[in-house]
Amino acid sequence: MTSSKKAFERILPAGQNSSLHSIEGGSTIGYQVICQPLNQPENNLCGLVFVLPKKEGRGFPLDTYESLSFKLYVESTVEDFDSRVLVFVKSYLDENKVSPDFVKDYKFHAVRVDQNGLIQVPLSRFKVETWWKDMHNIPFDLSHEDLSTVHSIEFFVNDLPLQDHHTYQLTVSDIKISGVYLEKNMLYKVLFYSWLLVGLCFYFVFRYREAKKIKNQAYHDQHSTLLNLNGFEHKYQKLLGRQAIFYRVKIINWSSLVRNFGIAMSNTLLQDIIQNHSVFFRSYFYISARLSHDELVFVRRRKALSAEDEEKLIRSLLSPITVVGLGELRLDIKIGASIEKSVPVNSQLVLERAEIASQAILYNDERIQLFSNEISQLAEQKSAIEQQIIQAIEEKAFYLLYMPIFSASQHKIVGVEALLRSHFGDLKNMSPEVYISVAEERGLVREIDAMVINMALNEVAASGLGDDFILSINVSSQELMDTSFVDRFSALVERSGVHFERLCIEITETFLIDVDAVCVNTIKNLRALGCRLSLDDFGTGYTSFQQLINFPVDEIKIDRSFIADLGDEQGHDVIVDSLVSIASNYDYHVVAEGVENKHIYDCLVTKGCDLMQGYYISRPISLVELAILNQQIVNGEITL
């Protein structure tokens, strides 16, 4: 086999306090390493590493050659230095790894030589090192010699451990592989005559890579592989005038995740979900971007996803991630979709349509909603209601009525539930449930809750009702998620002079689905003040009896849908019987809502349900009217 010279990719020194020197003299080309160890670890080395160039993306194929020759010179200031040198041929163990570990991802073949001068070693003499096999428990099928993908040829002083305050000098020159000559002189001549061209090319490549890196950072979210808002806008311009569908994803539990697990863990959760389903996102979407911390957008050209593929999108974003010590974490999302037959110049128009669609399903069980004219009209109606709420708050155009809570055993009204009403504009003819839900969506419910609590406390304090009279107040889930709520609530109560023991905080059963550690802590703090906690509309959610037993409540309100059908064949009697039984065993109060006639009243009394509210007892009335009504019931003027 003929020989020709090849340049090494890199020549590196190895060892503590080591320096590399090149030696050129006549036809001799060599490299020298000088090591001066000082307080070095026992496994420190002194040597030279010659990294071979890759061939077609693989390590250098040394198995096609016969022998390796080189000139070697080694000396040291150590007495009785034996001049032995360890020669390695280091191969890739796994070429697919981008950054292999220095030891465990390479295979080491070695020979030892103990003379200076010209040395020729047949490649067949290189054997796999036993220390490498033992260190990493190498299996039998990987322990054979393999010189087909060589990374480097390495020379090391064999005097181990190296001794402090001594000098070691190793010189290697004229490395040749039989059949291949490493023509250093020719390489240097080519480099000499083309240095200007190479320098210019390097400069432009460097500038291109730097520009590309800066652009990549400017267009990508730093916490995920998605585009950021800038990157979205850049790619959006290429869609102008074309048909596309936009899927805007709202992460509705992002604030809860950050509050409970921190921003870093929340970003990690999102990043893992995106990476685990990256193939799906790349295959189906032209744009995948993160608009803000809790909003994503996926854009598909030409046609929308099929129903099956929409389910894939939903499942991928809802897929849980297991975190050691925390268990399973997952996102909760709503998706608004907008089909654009001709993508407009203003991207905000498209994103707003998709957001309107997602807002339409924010408070129901749907996961995805397509924008339509009907959805747009509904959003406009909600905006109009929002404006009326704001004006009504400013003009103090809200007032309270009270739904009596009647005790059959005491035969009197023992409490009330405060109900909000308004005499402003369209609100006066609208169900409070409608505008309260809009207030929750638009972030106005805190002002309304504070107003209702303050009005109810002051009116009850001025009513002269007995100290055993209970005031029930509905509080939104948003308030219970706010760590400052207990302090604000406590200040209002203390200012009114009403005792905490006379207050009952009502929350809806569906709220328990999203309850977190902050909410539980808020509830515990309210109970610690002396307040009762009531679970309203029980039966409309998914709370099991076991959850009911474990959750810290004092009272259960059975939803009117169960009470209205007592005595029929739907099994509601069994549910009511079970709740009354549980209440008796666990010292809960049970309040039946929607008692509309005497038949239902008598049926509940028979079942042992003592507390009731409904139109059979009274419609919502003022506290003045309630005091009169209660006196009439106690005096027997009104019979129930």
* Strand segment tally: 26
| Number of helical elements | 19
What level of helicity do the residues show?
25-40%
Which regions have little confidence, pLDDT < 50, spanning 5+ residues?
Answer: 1-5, 180-184
Rg on CA atoms, Å: 40 Å
Mean pLDDT: 86
Categorize the overall geometry. elongated
Main sheet strand line-up: 19-20-21-22-23-24-25-26
- Proportion of beta-strand residues: 25-35%
The termini sit apart by 114 Å
Largest sheet: 8 strands, mixed, barrel
Structural class: alpha+beta
The gist of it:
The chain is of the alpha+beta class. The chain contains 19 helices and 26 strands.
Question: Your description of this structure?
Answer:
The protein has 19 helices and 26 strands. The chain starts with 9 loop residues before the first strand and ends in a 6-residue tail after the last helix. With 640 residues, it is of the alpha+beta class. Helices cover 36% and strands 26% of the residues.
Summarize the SSE layout with pairings.
Layout: E1 10-14, E2 18-25, E3 28-35, E4 47-51, E5 67-76, E6 85-92, E7 106-113, E8 117-122, E9 127-128, H1 130-136, E10 150-157, E11 168-177, H2 184-219, H3 229-236, E12 244-251, H4 254-261, H5 263-276, H6 278-284, E13 287-292, E14 295-301, H7 307-318, E15 321-323, E16 327-329, E17 333-340, H8 347-360, E18 368-370, H9 373-394, E19 398-407, E20 412-422, H10 432-441, H11 445-463, E21 470-474, H12 477-480, H13 485-496, E22 503-508, H14 517-529, E23 532-538, H15 545-550, E24 555-558, H16 560-563, H17 572-586, E25 589-593, H18 598-607, E26 611-613, H19 623-634
Parallel strand pairs: 17-18, 20-21, 21-22, 22-23, 23-24, 24-25, 25-26
Antiparallel strand pairs: 1-4, 2-3, 3-11, 4-10, 5-8, 5-11, 6-7, 6-10, 7-9, 12-14, 12-17, 13-14, 15-16, 19-20, 19-26
